[in-house]
Amino acid sequence: MDKNEILKALANPARLEILNHLKDPYAHFPTQEHPLELGVCASQFERCGLSQSTVSAHLSTLHRAGLVTTRRLGQWIFYKRNEETIAEFLAAMQKEL
Amino acid sequence: MDKNEILKALANPARLEILNHLKDPYAHFPTQEHPLELGVCASQFERCGLSQSTVSAHLSTLHRAGLVTTRRLGQWIFYKRNEETIAEFLAAMQKEL
DNA sequence: TACATAAATCGAAATTATTCGATATTCATG
DNA sequence: CATGAATATCGAATAATTTCGATTTATGTA
User: Fold this and answer.
1) Which residue, B11, B40, B47, B65, is the most exposed by fewest CB within 10 angstroms?
2) Which residues constitute the domain of residue A21?
């Protein structure tokens, strides 16, 4: 867990919104064809008003920081929050900040 | 409390180090002439290997984010952690992240 | 194999962050 | 009022971030 990588990833409103929307996929991504239990696929996040390539870059940043997990199923990649890393980060911040 | 301002302020190793060193001034700034109860004055942070103007800019960023308080005494400005804002931020992260 | 869809990557432009040295400001002291 | 010390601000160079459209890659399907 790289704390600075995580802080840099969180220091952006769009990425914070992505992480937040992932907390309740049923509320925020009701249009997804695939079951939301699998996760949310990348294209769904374009409703935040960003282009496909920008969304992809943000998701890559979140993944690099360990804040989301990915799971490929066919041509789709499903994203979920990585609650373990998020909890570990929050605990570290409580302790060290 | 602007969460994004705080996250941006924290997403930098130098500023994180400043905040951390302020947790135990007696350990990290034993050379300061003035009593450390007043806080730590800006020039003390130059021991982190950054120039005076760079340190000043980092302290300004931390102050703008509300993470430190300042107190002017004569020609010195003493810095302390703003534990209230830090605690508020940590609580918000626990709740919202 | 050809085509369609999802996502990643590339290249470029605009903005923001980081850092410095030099200069300005603020305040105390002689 | 002149000087010195602490801090802030300015201007500039460089690097990193953000964003896009275009292209590429990977996968599934006709």
Assistant:
1) B47
2) 3-96
